[in-house]
């Protein structure tokens, strides 16, 4: 085993005798910047998989933020979550956290720079606001069957992190998996219900099937879960030591960032100057080397973990009929003589006859049919679709906005029809268009309309017209959702033909 720095052991007595007094507060840090390309067409650039309820009623993000509820009474948990997400996803992320009753601080990345910079700005936020704290760092797109086992592993990890170690949760493998990275385990230093707590001896890349089988047989490897527990100050010291370019860029981006009512925005130029690197590559793989400045600890976890990275992973954790078929989504699904088939139906009836080992994913504007053994290649498919139909990889037909949503019902040469829903008390921006006019027909609720110098209401079964180039705004003054049909006509109907003059949500 590689030479390592001295590992600081964790036990209740040593925690109580810490010279700093009370144990550090635990902070949930959720990294919600992923894209989920392999789960297309449900997951898309502007509404990625973490914002979608793929399994159960909660989105993957909502399931993640609830995961550290009810840790043992001896652990003090800060109720304010730290969430790092892409600026494009800020409004729906905030709304989903509000719905599940989670106080939060959302840090906005102006562009994706991978997980190491994301974790660094989260650590900077915790140190700036609290002096220090223990971070439980979770990707927003994982699933666990046994939440109590997960929490037990977190509790064990907190004890080691409090002593200055960097902890990772290692998933106990149950098969020779070639789609995951692995953690090589060192000496046993403690125990947990499902196995020994071990020193971290190294990370290894996704193996071949034969090598994966050797890892499984040896008992000295775990799957890399991507879940970490460490003090914020320890991470900042480690990233400064191992990757000073990331440390410097993130420090500048945070110090020159700005806050508003709902979000903290990193300074764009500084953050985008950061190298793009993962937590594993930037720091974790270097722990255990000769120049280690802190020790790595692996806490084993056997709690029905899945990273939900492919449709096959979704199928594996879903409830199935006796023939191995599983279905999800809002639409109706019927199987006849089918086996080991997954269907995710957005709205329409999907009927499968005599199918075996396939995936069918239906959305209003795209349908995926794939063999379950080939779902890793969906990412390659999306790259090809980008070349000719990029919009189908960016947005759904139904697009969420901070005021509600719109659904593009129909589109042709020089016209487009949308169904628009505005939540009670919300308003679209004060805006104008250079290339299109709009007709609005209210089908439910009451609209308050600004049209040039005019201000007036439009009730159910009434309509109004917004000429090209006229400044306008749509508001919902009522207590029920405002539903309306918008008919656009003009030479160009793209969403970028919006000149915002005022906006309640800080959009430009």
TrEMBL record:
<dbReference type="GO" id="GO:0005525">
    <property type="term" value="F:GTP binding"/>
</dbReference>
<dbReference type="GO" id="GO:0016853">
    <property type="term" value="F:isomerase activity"/>
</dbReference>
<keyword id="KW-0413">Isomerase</keyword>
<dbReference type="InterPro" id="IPR051161">
    <property type="entry name" value="Mannose-6P_isomerase_type2"/>
</dbReference>
<dbReference type="Pfam" id="PF00483">
    <property type="entry name" value="NTP_transferase"/>
</dbReference>
<dbReference type="GO" id="GO:0009298">
    <property type="term" value="P:GDP-mannose biosynthetic process"/>
</dbReference>
<keyword id="KW-0547">Nucleotide-binding</keyword>
<protein>
    <recommendedName>
        <fullName>mannose-1-phosphate guanylyltransferase</fullName>
        <ecNumber>2.7.7.13</ecNumber>
    </recommendedName>
</protein>
<keyword id="KW-0548">Nucleotidyltransferase</keyword>
<dbReference type="GO" id="GO:0004475">
    <property type="term" value="F:mannose-1-phosphate guanylyltransferase (GTP) activity"/>
</dbReference>
<dbReference type="InterPro" id="IPR006375">
    <property type="entry name" value="Man1P_GuaTrfase/Man6P_Isoase"/>
</dbReference>
<keyword id="KW-0808">Transferase</keyword>
<dbReference type="InterPro" id="IPR054566">
    <property type="entry name" value="ManC/GMP-like_b-helix"/>
</dbReference>
<feature type="domain" description="Nucleotidyl transferase">
    <location>
        <begin position="28"/>
        <end position="322"/>
    </location>
</feature>
<dbReference type="InterPro" id="IPR001538">
    <property type="entry name" value="Man6P_isomerase-2_C"/>
</dbReference>
<comment type="similarity">
    <text>Belongs to the mannose-6-phosphate isomerase type 2 family.</text>
</comment>
<dbReference type="GO" id="GO:0000271">
    <property type="term" value="P:polysaccharide biosynthetic process"/>
</dbReference>
<dbReference type="InterPro" id="IPR005835">
    <property type="entry name" value="NTP_transferase_dom"/>
</dbReference>
<feature type="domain" description="MannoseP isomerase/GMP-like beta-helix">
    <location>
        <begin position="339"/>
        <end position="384"/>
    </location>
</feature>
<dbReference type="InterPro" id="IPR014710">
    <property type="entry name" value="RmlC-like_jellyroll"/>
</dbReference>
<keyword id="KW-0342">GTP-binding</keyword>
<dbReference type="InterPro" id="IPR011051">
    <property type="entry name" value="RmlC_Cupin_sf"/>
</dbReference>
<dbReference type="Pfam" id="PF22640">
    <property type="entry name" value="ManC_GMP_beta-helix"/>
</dbReference>
<dbReference type="Pfam" id="PF01050">
    <property type="entry name" value="MannoseP_isomer"/>
</dbReference>
<dbReference type="InterPro" id="IPR049577">
    <property type="entry name" value="GMPP_N"/>
</dbReference>
<feature type="domain" description="Mannose-6-phosphate isomerase type II C-terminal">
    <location>
        <begin position="393"/>
        <end position="503"/>
    </location>
</feature>
<dbReference type="InterPro" id="IPR029044">
    <property type="entry name" value="Nucleotide-diphossugar_trans"/>
</dbReference>
């Amino acid at each position: 085993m590689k030479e390592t720095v001295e590992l600081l052991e964790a036990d209740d007595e040593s925690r109580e005798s810490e010279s700093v007094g009370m144990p550090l507060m635990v902070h949930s840090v959720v990294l919600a910047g992923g894209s989920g390309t392999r789960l297309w067409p449900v997951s898309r650039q502007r509404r990625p998989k973490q914002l979608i309820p793929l399994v159960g009623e909660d989105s993957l993000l909502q399931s993640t933020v609830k995961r550290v509820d009810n840790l043992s009474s001896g652990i003090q948990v800060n109720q304010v979550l730290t969430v790092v997400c892409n600026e494009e996803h800020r409004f729906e992320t905030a709304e989903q956290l509000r719905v599940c009753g989670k106080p939060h601080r959302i840090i906005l990345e102006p562009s994706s720079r991978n997980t190491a910079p994301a974790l660094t700005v989260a650590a900077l936020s915790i140190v700036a606001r609290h002096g220090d704290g223990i971070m439980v760092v979770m990707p927003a797109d994982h699933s666990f069957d046994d939440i109590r086992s997960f929490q037990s592993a977190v509790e064990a990890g907190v004890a080691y992190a409090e002593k200055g170690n960097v902890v990772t949760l290692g998933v106990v493998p149950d098969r020779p998996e070639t789609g995951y990275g692995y953690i090589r385990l060192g000496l046993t230093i403690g125990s947990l219900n499902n196995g020994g707590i071990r020193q971290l001896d190294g990370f290894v890349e996704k193996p071949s099937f034969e090598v994966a089988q050797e890892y499984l047989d040896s008992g000295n490897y775990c799957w890399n879960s991507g879940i970490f527990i460490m003090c914020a100050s320890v991470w900042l010291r480690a990233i400064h030591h191992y990757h000073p370019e990331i440390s410097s860029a993130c420090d500048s981006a945070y110090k020159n960032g700005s806050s508003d009512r709902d979000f903290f925005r990193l300074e764009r130029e500084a953050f985008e100057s950061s190298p793009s690197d993962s937590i594993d590559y930037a720091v974790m793989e270097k722990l255990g080397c000769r120049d280690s400045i802190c020790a790595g600890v692996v806490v084993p976890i056997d709690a029905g973990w899945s990273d939900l990275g492919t449709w096959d992973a979704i199928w594996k954790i879903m409830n199935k009929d006796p023939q191995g078929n599983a279905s999800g989504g809002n639409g109706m699904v019927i199987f006849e003589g089918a086996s080991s088939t997954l269907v995710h139906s957005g709205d329409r009836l999907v009927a499968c006859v005599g199918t075996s080992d396939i995936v069918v994913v239906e959305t209003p504007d795209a349908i995926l049919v794939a063999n379950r053994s080939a779902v890793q290649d969906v990412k390659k498919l999306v790259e090809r679709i980008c070349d000719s139909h990029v919009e189908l990889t960016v947005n759904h037909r139904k697009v969420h906005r901070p005021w509600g949503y719109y659904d593009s019902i129909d589109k042709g040469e020089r016209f487009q029809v949308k169904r628009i829903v505005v939540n009670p008390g919300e308003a679209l921006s004060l805006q104008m268009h250079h290339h299109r006019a709009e007709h609005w027909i209210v089908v439910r609720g009451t609209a308050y309309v600004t049209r040039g110098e005019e201000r007036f209401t439009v009730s159910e079964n009434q309509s109004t017209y917004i000429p090209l180039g006229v400044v306008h705004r749509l508001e919902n003054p009522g207590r029920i959702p405002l539903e309306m049909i918008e008919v656009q006509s003009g030479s160009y109907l793209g969403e970028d033909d919006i000149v915002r003059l005022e906006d309640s949500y800080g959009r430009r």
